[in-house]
Specification:
The chain has 20 helices and 11 strands. It has 545 residues and is of the alpha+beta class. Helix 8 packs antiparallel against helix 11 and helix 18 runs antiparallel to helix 19.
Length: 545
């Protein structure tokens, strides 16, 4: 049977667009059934009026495994615009880089094309174009230069300076522990990244594999495929997507909430320095999910615990750059570069060692699950008010010598019902935890209520006055907040310390014990609610940028 070409498929007749598109798709499928391997690019050229629909059709067809995807290696030896492709250099998740020769100028270049070729969707093409346009705006000796951006037969491409040297990953893999050279390399990389930041561009995927080493040993930043930059006042980003390489991404990137900025690149620079110091990235795992969990929840081992002969000053610089809280890192890539220059000059750096007070302060600021509790600000405030008002009432009724059931047990029963009502409303009808972040918090406070309930029961059985329960309740509250500080906001430990003080005061001052206890709960929950409200407003402000 004679093989047909894509140009032999039906052309579009007026008022018959849908039928023509269906005929093109049917022709493609029939050729596959007949054992042919039709080229999607030929159909796109023959039917440009259906380009988007056909791209989507071909892409879905290949993803479901119903036909083989086009082989990018077939482009070797192909003339792409003015470039003659000679060999493949590297292949990544979004693009493939070839060694090519530019006709006319007769110079070798690196030519990058979208790895999915003509099947690339709108989002892939958008990111590819962002990478090209972002890098083309930068003219710095530490950044790979872009020569030309173009399109050829459905393939997006751009050409750039060809660097024959290896990537920085080779140095990490070989565990070449030359600390001064590592400091120099990261210093140069940070200077180049700082230049990009001043131009309004954030890289967001800095890692050793994206740093090429030139013949004279200079590091060159490449692959701006996830770059975020201001263009006509609009920030190009995708909130809700986890963008970057897990081992080297910052916690705010790992959250996928669109909050990655200059501080994220500073973190990645610190992670690169960490890898050069010890031969591996700061976070590891058997899967991407495990690495992301580690980035969000674990403190990296200090480099000197992995490699004892690593310089203390360089460790300090590294750890400051990869701190969990962006506000405590270097304020810019320039500041990181300057500190590395000081180290190379034998001068003291600004990155002081992590003493006990510094570590405690960072632990108090740490909030690894803030995204799960940002909506709780108003509800926590209401719960604090309910507890406070209840204990003011208990104090007044106790002073008036009301019976215990009316002065103590009834108000507390109503208080618990009101608290459960607030939680039920805040969680839209659900009382049980739904996420891994909520479960430990629920366990802590359910244990608190159960223990307090048993203590109340024992006091009734033993005939003790209800006022004796306030020191116990304060101590249990202290335990709850201190335990919670290790899982959510570290500042909760301060409320725990406050409750320990209240526990002592309620023994010394039994009459105002309900007021002291209720006031401490009000201060704690209003402060906690304000903390999460401020985090939510900050997240909303970033998302609106």
């Amino acid at each position: 049977m004679k093989k047909r070409s894509a140009s032999e498929t039906p052309t579009t007749a007026p008022g018959n667009v849908d039928q023509t598109l269906e005929a093109v798709m049917a022709d493609y499928l029939q050729r596959i059934e007949e054992g042919e391997n039709p080229e999607p690019a030929a159909y796109l050229r023959a039917h440009p009026q259906h380009e988007e629909e056909l791209r989507s059709f071909f892409r879905n067809h290949h993803w479901f495994g119903e036909s083989p995807a086009p082989e990018n290696s077939s482009l070797i030896g192909t003339q792409v615009g003015p470039y003659q492709i000679e060999a493949e250099i590297a292949r990544g998740g979004m693009g493939v880089v070839y060694r090519a020769r530019q006709q006319g100028l007769e110079r070798p270049v690196a030519l990058k094309l979208i790895s999915t070729g003509v099947l690339a969707g709108t989002e892939e093409r958008r990111r590819f174009r962002i990478e090209a346009e972002a890098a083309a705006r930068l003219h710095h000796p530490g950044i790979i230069a872009i020569h030309e951006i173009g399109s050829w037969q459905g393939y997006e491409y751009f050409s750039m300076t060809l660097v024959e040297g290896p990537t920085l990953q080779l140095r990490v893999d070989d565990k070449v522990f030359d600390d001064r050279e590592s400091a120099r390399l990261v210093c140069d990389i940070a200077s180049a990244v700082a230049y990009a930041h001043r131009a309004g561009i954030v890289h967001r995927d800095l890692k050793p594999e994206n740093i090429l080493i030139s013949e004279d040993g200079r590091p060159l930043v490449t692959d701006f495929g996830l770059a975020k930059w201001h263009r006509e006042g609009t920030m190009i980003t995708r909130t809700g997507q986890v963008l970057g390489t897990p081992h080297y991404m910052s916690p705010e990137q790992a959250c996928g909430r669109g909050q990655s900025g200059v501080a994220s690149d500073v973190y990645s620079l610190g992670a690169i320095l960490y890898a050069l110091l010890v031969g591996r990235p700061p976070h590891r795992g058997n899967s991407a999910a495990e690495v992301l969990r580690s980035v969000l929840q674990d403190e990296p081992e200090p480099p000197r615990q992995v490699r004892r002969d690593a310089p203390q000053e360089l460790e300090n610089v590294c750890l400051k750059a990869i701190r969990y809280d962006p506000a405590t890192r270097y304020s810019s890539a320039d500041d990181l570069a300057k500190d590395l220059e000081r180290y190379l000059a034998g001068e003291p750096t600004s990155a002081a060692g992590s003493g006990l007070l510094d570590r405690v302060a960072r632990e108090i600021r740490r909030d690894q699950h803030q995204n799960y509790f940002e909506e709780w600000g108003r509800s926590l405030t209401w719960i604090g008010v309910i507890i406070f008002v209840t204990h003011v009432l208990i104090f007044v009724l106790d002073v008036l010598d009301a019976p215990a059931w009316g002065a103590f047990w009834l108000p507390r029963g109503v208080m618990l019902l009101a608290i459960f009502g607030v939680i039920y409303h805040a969680r839209e009808g659900a009382l049980l935890p739904r996420t891994v972040a909520e479960r430990p918090v629920w366990s802590i406070w359910i244990a608190y209520l159960a223990t307090l309930g048993v203590m109340n029961l024992l006091s009734l059985m033993d005939g003790l006055g209800h006022s004796t329960l306030f020191p116990v309740a304060s101590s249990l509250s202290a335990f709850g907040f201190i335990a919670m500080s290790g899982h959510v906001w570290g500042g909760s430990a301060l409320f725990g310390l406050g409750f320990l003080g209240v526990a002592v005061l309620t023994v010394l001052l039994p009459t105002p014990a309900p007021l002291l206890f209720g006031t401490m709960w009000l201060i704690s929950l209003v402060s906690l609610g304000q903390h999460y409200r401020s985090k939510r407003l900050a997240s909303a402000a970033v998302a609106d940028v």
